[in-house]
Design goal:
Chain lengths: 603, 188
């Protein structure tokens, strides 16, 4: 088998692959090599997932804290002072702390949870298992990828504890605020640590992305043509391409920002007065940073949402016992989104003085994204249409994903119009839009993935009852939190403001803001319930007794319940058909490993 | 087994594949820099100046090193290990000489009254050339590893893949430098 031969040229995988049958030659892996510096993609996936969960709790907790300020601007909470110290003097979060919390919430959720935690986990877990490979193209680089992420996490975590606080200029880190240490307390060492951490993060993403792409293109098992791959793999593939091409540009932007901070250059700085004193910097352009940032920043939102789309496609097909509708259209729309992702970055900059003529092109390209998105939504709905749906927590979250993706996506059409954006930019409307379409949807995809593949990860099931509670409270709560924000935004209530109760026109939202905050606390509590369910089920969950609990066709369910490094004890199975032969020829499902029958129609 | 090896030959080695994607990624980084340069150049207060002449010498150095690593690969495949070791050492030395030349170029720029914190057009040269230099030095580190492997007596490697990967990378930073030099000379 060609795949096997490829692997055997690599020492590191060979060692792992032989582990099962050569026990007399290889001693058992030590604790360090099995759980810490593991090169097994399944263990690395777990490392990404658990690190992501830790970050998600921190990031979500930050949002609870700043929602307390937004919902109850006049109240004091003495317990806050015992957690945050002088950042919450007298039990009220200070303005500096508020900005730091908002910035860190964005950074943590966008990068550490929904990029590393989501695609890091599932690309690692599913790519080798679903394409039929022993491990990644380079397990060593894969291991490095996690540890760079871990280092990035440590640096970011450290920045929370420095005296002047973490970076607080918004997750986009726009200069000149972020470039000048004197500009605000949150622009001091916090920004340096932020930039260091993000540079390490970019390295981690690149190492991971290289591996995902070369594994998918090179290490597929015999018979696994590209068009026989599950849609999960296609989505991870496009995600990795987006990351590999856009993260380096972000790094360029960060290097220039670091130079501006420490080497006295003026890439982004010009004609600035701080505290009545003129700075020497001349000739820089702050908008330049925005171009570099959003050239990554826009693909980044697809890096977040594409893996969720892929997993939702898979889960919906499996749980409705129907082939995915429009498989090739699904791939084509992923491809179209991938291309368009690079051509729309300036829609984040409509009000920066961008040439309106140029803006018109970006409006057109932005609205074009609605086409592949609508194709995908149509296909998901037609996939479950008249299906025999098993309402597992995973399938509920997938259906929830489709719902939030529609309602969040529609408001994207509003914001994509440069003229409407003049009114709506930097208001709560934007917050509502991207939280629903990117935040909630991506989380729903991630939850669907976790519930669905938990048996593959740990050989046990998560508790479904807690899963249902988790789903319904999160689903209803997400809409209760973000729906009202549309009204606030249309009325002009700005985002990022510390206290809007001073404005007569926004005072009317006082009660609404209180309501949102209360729902946020409830939803946060339910997420903690999910975390409890997750860790409890690792040790005490119902044990998996069959190899293929969901009766799925794809390859990952042909491996042993506790697969060793190398995944399959014997030969890697050969693949004869696509991954979506459900309810075909009177059979519930036909695994990919079953040869095509003599009278059978090939998909 | 024979058919397996044959089939294997047709397929590109995953490490080489990863290298090609990595090169695409590095290219994107420099596209980021150079497009920032173009955007900045079209704005007011852009100061044009001649590049330091030593950059042409460094170009000659890196071109020569591309030739030496190509020969090294050839010698490795013919198992002339002595010549191979000499050639990769020479390549690594040329890589360091290249970095030194670039460094001298920086001091020449400074002498011309264009320090790092001077006009933006000069700052760009420092950053772009500096980041490229780091990539060349990364290649030197890879060659040192290769050198260490060649001197191992207990384990011998017959696979040409690592040296092929290193050589491809080396040619890549070479071509990248030529692109940057042409870009920086034309778009002044």
């Amino acid at each position: 088998m060609s795949n096997e031969a490829t692997l055997h040229s690599q020492q590191e995988v060979m060692h792992g692959a032989h582990d099962h049958h050569d026990h007399e030659h290889h001693h058992e892996d030590s604790f360090i090599s099995k759980y810490v510096f593991s090169m097994d993609h399944k263990m690395i996936a777990k490392q990404f997932l658990i690190t992501g969960i830790v970050w998600a709790i921190i990031g979500a907790f930050f949002s609870v804290l700043f929602r307390l300020q937004l919902g109850f601007p006049d109240a004091t909470f003495p317990w806050l002072e015992s957690i945050l110290g002088h950042w919450a003097k007298g039990g009220r979060i200070t303005a500096e702390a508020y900005y730091a919390l908002v910035t860190m919430h964005g950074t943590i959720l966008v990068f550490f949870v929904l990029t590393a935690g989501l695609s890091g986990t599932f690309s690692n877990l599913l790519i080798p298992l679903q394409v039929g490979a022993r491990d990644m193209a380079s397990p060593f680089m894969n291991c490095l990828s996690y540890w760079f992420f871990f280092l990035a996490s440590l640096v970011m975590m450290a920045s929370l504890f420095v005296q002047t606080g973490p970076a607080s200029g918004g997750w986009t880190m726009y200069p000149p605020l972020s470039a000048l240490g004197d500009a605000s307390i949150g622009s001091k060492i916090g920004v340096d640590l932020w930039l260091t951490s993000m540079a390490l993060f970019v390295v981690s993403q690149l190492l991971g992305g290289l591996n995902y792409i070369s594994t998918i293109l090179n290490m597929r098992t015999k018979g696994m043509a590209m068009t026989k791959m599950p849609l999960t793999i296609w989505s991870f593939f496009f995600t990795a391409i987006l990351g590999v091409l856009s993260f380096p540009v972000l790094l360029s932007g960060f290097i220039l920002l670091l130079m501006d901070r420490h080497a006295g250059t003026s890439f982004y700085l010009s004609d600035i007065f701080i505290a009545g004193k003129a700075l020497a910097n001349e000739g820089g352009s702050a908008i330049l940073y925005q171009h570099l940032f959003w050239f990554l920043g826009h693909p980044e939102v697809y890096i977040i949402i594409l893996p969720a789309m892929g997993m939702v496609s898979e889960v919906l097909a499996v749980s409705s016992r129907k082939p995915i509708f429009g498989y090739l259209a699904m791939i084509g729309s992923l491809f179209a989104i991938c291309i368009l992702a690079f051509l729309v970055w300036a829609h984040h900059m409509f009000v920066t003085g961008l040439n309106p003529f140029l803006g018109a092109f970006f409006v057109l390209l932005t609205l074009l994204i609605a086409v592949p998105s609508a194709i995908k939504v149509f296909n998901w709905i037609t996939t479950i249409w008249k299906g025999n749906i098993n309402f597992t927590p995973a399938s509920l979250f997938s259906i929830g994903f489709v719902s939030t993706f529609i309602s969040g996506g529609l408001t994207g059409i509003w914001l994509g119009n440069s003229s409407i954006d003049i009114h709506l930019h930097d208001t709560m409307f934007v917050i509502a839009h991207f939280h629903i379409v990117m935040g909630v949807s991506a989380f729903f995809g991630m939850f669907a993935g976790i519930y669905h593949w938990f048996p593959k990860l740990y050989g046990r099931f998560m508790n479904s009852t807690i899963g249902y509670i988790h789903f319904w409270v999160t689903m209803v709560g997400a809409y209760l939190i973000f729906w009202p924000m549309h009204y606030e935004g249309m009325a002009g209530m700005p985002r990022r403001y510390y206290d809007v109760s001073n404005w007569a026109s926004f005072k009317q939202f006082g009660g609404l803001n209180e309501f949102i905050t209360i729902v946020v606390i409830l939803v946060f509590a339910v997420q903690l319930l999910f975390v409890f369910n997750f860790f409890y089920s690792i040790f005490k969950g119902r044990k998996m007794t069959t190899l293929n609990p969901w009766n799925a066709t794809s390859l990952e369910w042909t491996t042993p319940i506790h697969a060793g490094h190398g995944n399959w004890p014997g030969e890697i199975p050969e693949v004869y058909r696509w991954a979506y032969d459900y309810s075909k020829d009177g059979r519930d499902f036909i695994p990919q490993t079953e040869p095509i029958g003599p009278n059978e129609e090939v998909h | 087994m024979d058919t397996m090896t044959l089939e294997q030959r047709k397929k590109i080695h995953p490490h080489k594949y990863s290298l090609w994607i990595a090169m695409g990624s590095i290219t994107m980084m420099f596209i980021g820099f150079t497009s920032a340069y173009i955007v900045k150049r079209s704005q007011a207060n852009w100061l044009a100046f001649e590049l330091p002449h030593i950059f042409w010498i460094s170009t000659a150095v890196i071109l020569t090193s591309s030739l030496t690593i190509h020969l090294a690969l050839k010698q490795f495949k013919e198992r002339n290990m002595q010549r191979y070791k000499q050639l990769i050492t020479l390549t690594a030395i040329l890589g360091v000489v290249f970095a030194v030349c670039q460094w001298i170029g920086f001091s020449q720029l400074k002498a011309m009254g264009l320090p790092l914190n001077g006009p933006v057009s000069a700052s760009f040269i420092y950053v772009i050339v500096g980041v490229h230099m780091l990539h060349v030095l990364g290649g030197v580190v890879a060659l040192l590893v290769m050198f260490g492997r060649a001197y191992r007596t207990r384990i011998r490697t017959y696979s040409a893949v690592p040296i092929e990967v290193a050589a491809t990378y080396w040619h890549f930073v070479d071509v990248l430098w030529i692109y940057l030099l042409i870009f920086l000379s034309i778009a002044r």
